[in-house]
């Protein structure tokens, strides 16, 4: 399937996306900038993760959104947050983030907050692990939630990095267990395609992490506890593109810290 960069695509009745033209090994196809509103015809939208500070991208987002009451950040990594200040300047909308360094015109947002904009209610869940400031945004429906925006906590494909030392594996596993309660809820991720079931995706991520932990334990048993994180990467992530090994090293460092904490 060919990718449509810098074009608005309606994904669900409540959510559409503009895919930033910043593909890489770490960003997959690029950063998803999400627009939320109660109906596609409304000329107003909440923007989640403005993406890079790229004029073409931000102009597309503004045209697709119309007026913008709120700008939300799932976390502060530059591929999600770099364009936030410029979008704030273009629209006047406050930028809400957990980390004060990424807030503009607002006091911020944290676990348990309930936000309203463009006819949509948004519940804030703290889902740390990928980073300490990672948030997910749950959009409730008449019954169960209808969507969850997960940033890099759950991606549209592949697995994410636990960005040690800011990211903590124990926190990440707890966040995945929380997201696993969202049975049948659509995942709108920070990168990659949307997913049909947050519960199933989170359980798959948990199984993958348990498998990796078992492999790290075995690598240490075979090679000795003095193995460096990169030594473990070479053994455990041999099936992964070596271009991703530096990112895998972060995750291994987080895994080693987790195993030390539990006394393994």
End-to-end C-alpha gap: 44 Å
Helix vs. strand class: alpha/beta
Low-confidence stretches: none
Instruction: Average the pLDDT over all residues and give the rounded result.
Output: 95
Main sheet makeup? 6 strands, mixed
Oligomer: single chain
Structure description:
With about 260 residues, the protein is of the alpha/beta class. About 35% of the residues lie in helices and about 20% in strands. It is built from seven helices and eleven strands. The chain has helices at about 55-65, 80, 85-90, 170-180, 200-225, 230-235, 245-260, and strands spanning about 10, 15-20, 30-35, 45-50, 70, 95, 115, 120-125, 135-140, 145-150, 185-190. It has a six-stranded mixed sheet with strand order 1-2-3-4-5-6. Strand 4 (about 45-50), helix 1 and strand 5 form a beta-alpha-beta unit. Helix 4 (about 170-180) runs antiparallel to helix 5 (about 200-225) and helix 6 (about 230-235) crosses helix 7. The longest helix is centred in the last third of the chain and has 26 residues, at about 200-225. It is globular. The chain starts with 7 loop residues before the first strand and ends with a helix. The mean pLDDT is about 95.
């Amino acid at each position: 399937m060919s990718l449509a960069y810098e074009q608005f695509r309606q994904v669900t009745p409540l959510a559409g996306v503009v895919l930033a033209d910043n593909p890489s090994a770490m960003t997959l196809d690029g950063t998803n900038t999400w627009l939320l509103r109660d109906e596609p015809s409304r000329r107003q939208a909440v923007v989640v993760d403005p993406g890079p500070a790229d004029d073409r991208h931000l102009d597309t987002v503004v045209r697709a959104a119309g007026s913008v009451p709120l700008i939300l950040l799932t976390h502060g990594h530059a591929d999600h947050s770099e364009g936030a200040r410029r979008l704030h300047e273009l629209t006047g909308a406050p930028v809400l983030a957990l980390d004060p360094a990424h807030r503009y015109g607002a006091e911020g947002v944290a676990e348990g907050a309930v936000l309203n904009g463009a006819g949509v209610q948004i519940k804030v869940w703290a889902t740390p692990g990928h980073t300490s400031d990672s948030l997910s945004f749950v959009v409730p429906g008449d019954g169960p939630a209808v969507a969850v925006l997960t940033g890099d906590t759950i991606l549209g494909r592949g697995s994410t990095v636990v960005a040690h030392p800011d990211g903590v594996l124990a926190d990440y596993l707890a966040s995945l267990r929380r997201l696993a309660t969202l049975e049948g809820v659509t995942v709108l991720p920070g990168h990659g395609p949307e997913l049909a079931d947050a519960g199933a995706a989170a359980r798959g991520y948990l199984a993958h992490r348990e498998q990796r932990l078992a492999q790290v334990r075995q690598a240490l048993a075979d090679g000795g506890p003095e193995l460096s994180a990169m030594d473990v990467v070479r053994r455990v992530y041999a099936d992964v593109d070596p271009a991703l090994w530096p990112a895998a090293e972060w995750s291994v460092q987080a895994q080693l810290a987790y195993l030390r904490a539990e006394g393994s």
